[in-house]
Amino acid sequence: MSEQQAKLSKSEAKTYRVQGFTCANCAAKFENNVKSLPGVQDAKVNFGASKITVWGTTTIEELEKAGAFENLKVREDKEKSVKREPFWKQKENIKVYISAVLLVISWFLGKQYGEEHIFATIGYAAAILIGGYSLFIKGFKNLVRLNFDMNTLMTVAILGAAAIGEWGEGATVVILFAISEALERYSMDKARQSIESLMDIAPKEALIRRGNEEMMVPVDDIQVGDIMIVKPGQKLAMDGIVIKGTSTLNQAAITGESVPVTKTVGDEVFAGTLNEEGLLEVKVTKRVEDTTLSKIIHLVEEAQAERAPSQAFVDRFAKYYTPAIIIFALLLAVIPPLFMGADWSEWIYRGLAVLVVGCPCALVISTPVSIVTAIGNAAKNGVLIKGGIYLEEAGNLKVIAFDKTGTLTKGIPSVTDVVTYNGNENELMTITAAIEKGSQHPLASAIIRKAEEDGLNFNDVSVEEFQSITGKGVKAKVNNAMYYVGSPGLFEELLPNGIQSEIKEQITTLQIQGKTVMVLGTEKEILALIAVADEIRESSKEVIRKLHQVGIEKTVMLTGDNQRTAEAIGKQVGVSDIKADLLPEDKLNFIKELRDKYRSVAMVGDGVNDAPALAASTVGVAMGGAGTDTALETADIVLMSDDLSKLPYTIKLSRKALAIIKQNITFSLGIKALSLLLIVPGWLTLWLAIFADMGATLIVTLNSMRLLKVKE
């Protein structure tokens, strides 16, 4: 948000949907027209999402007047989208059909009676007027204001063609230009559909219980604290917490995961997810505008308005390029006849062909269509990319750094091995769990979970004289015997002769595997070893392998764990580098070092304690965004599921988008250069010029649409 808009945000900002944008230039022009309306302090158009935000006061009628040059339709943001007619039935396309028929009839008349015949000329003139009517209005208005855009160039070229008697070519240019505009509209609508499909995911009303009464309530009227009843096969309309029932929910709309997730009392659920089995009662926790789905839609729309570096370059280029083409066309039409005695009509014709081929249409659309398509595709697959700049940066990545705990691992320690030396395993685990019940240590919770899973009756064991031994462990009396639970170091001090060598070897073996070893024993002997480890996520190894496969040169694991544990996990996962014993500020400094060395570095974390490192990286990637607002706010790319499996897809999509943007820009400029070279031998005709321009626009657009096909 600009400083100006920040100041204005205190005054009323209102967002409207706009229908009918054909190109980024028209959007910019509409924005300027709205800014000059009385009562409007500022306005910002989001071309990708087809929206305008207005600071100040105005009406829909005023806004539509400001967009009359493009016949724009404006509606309130919250209103349901108007169903567009099928492409072939749209009013603006019907006049193209009529013109095309007139053109063909006139061509036959020209063949029959000669090109100069009055019937042929009238037919061509009618085709020009019907097909180019709206184009001429825009072109003349711009000409008066000396605003040279595409419409101005086309208007001058077509009228010039008619003036020198090239009626047939003028009519062909009008029709080809109208077709190119229709195709551009069609492709932008197709790219925007990804967002519109997100908007229709959640129902617009829900069954709510208030007191003893059940009623259908529109989502705008549902309050926080209402009880929502969701039957099997229905979608959830609001975010909330399950207060009754158990069911499996398909969360693909939010997280991109196709495997349904079981939800029961106390679990968080999201609007737009599908209840597959049981009846659920859900307490609503957020208003409709604050739901996770609303946030996703808002962030995706904001992202599509962010200009990518290549788009900024293209816009700057087009700003100087269009006037340069006009001057060149003018000089080409005037200098040879004036100074070399050449034929006026031939050189005016060549000048007009330069005007037509010079349209920066394909070039201007080359980047936005790719970005809108890629970001929309990503959102449907459970990945939020917060702008074209991050899409491009992700495509350039060489190095990805991962936080270990909660990212590559599950972040929940669990018991992996129990080695007993004297006594029954269940008995010893019951004693350990009974003692650890009084401890606050994270490893204690792992032991208690294991005892619960094994159905051990540890709650009935009476524990006396419980005492914590700082940094080493705990001790307590069970059945009148004193037991100790703690680190191997505690028992080195406790036992008269230290730990026996074979037990030491066993401890070392477990530690090399990346496990933390806890020991249960008395002052005389060791009874059992309990190994606890933070389990690796099932997907981590495969994700790292795929990242190396798609061309990431280096993957680094960052952790506060000791070197031995870190290396064990790093080797299992397959990362190329491991950095252990790091404090949060060490992670931050290490990311800065990587940036200095490789320029483009991503940091992947769970978005809470990794915020500084996420901010310092070129691209911060947070996972588990569906549950945490912090991740949605701080990261540049958010994986909505609590899983890394979408990361290789994101890199693949970004690389493909980057490649397509480069192809589009190169192709657009190449076609222009080639067409301009055809002027020298005089081969560039008007219809060939518009064909080159239209062909380039169409190819660039279709090339961008390939991004819809990128799958996991």
Model regions low in confidence, pLDDT < 50 over at least 5 residues: 6-10
Find the structural class using helix and strand composition: alpha+beta
CATH class of the domain at 372-409 and 538-655: Alpha Beta
Mean pLDDT across all amino acids? 82
Please tell me the CATH architecture of the domain at 372-409 and 538-655 by its name: 3-Layer(aba) Sandwich
Transmembrane segments: 94-110, 117-136, 320-340, 352-376, 665-684
Membrane topology: Multi-pass membrane protein
Pfam family, one: E1-E2_ATPase
Protein name: Cd(2+)-exporting ATPase
Key terms for this structure?
seven-stranded mixed beta sheet; 26 strands; metal ion binding; 25 helices; Calcium-transporting ATPase, cytoplasmic transduction domain A; 712 residues; transmembrane helix; cadmium; six-stranded antiparallel beta sheet; Rossmann fold; Alpha-Beta Plaits; alpha+beta
Report what the structure shows.
GO terms for molecular function: ATP binding; ATP hydrolysis activity; metal ion binding; P-type cadmium transporter activity. Residues 12-75 form the HMA domain. Its EC number is 7.2.2.21. With 712 residues, the chain is α+β, with helices and mostly antiparallel strands. Among the domains are: 3-76, Alpha-Beta Plaits (2-Layer Sandwich), CATH 3.30.70.100; 206-290, Calcium-transporting ATPase, cytoplasmic transduction domain A (Distorted Sandwich), CATH 2.70.150.10; 372-409 and 538-655, 3-Layer(aba) Sandwich (Rossmann fold); 410-535, Calcium-transporting ATPase, cytoplasmic domain N (3-Layer(aba) Sandwich). Helix content is 51%, strand content 19%. The protein contains 25 helices and 26 strands. α11 runs parallel beside α25 and α24 runs antiparallel to α25. The chain is elongated, with a radius of gyration of 34 Å.
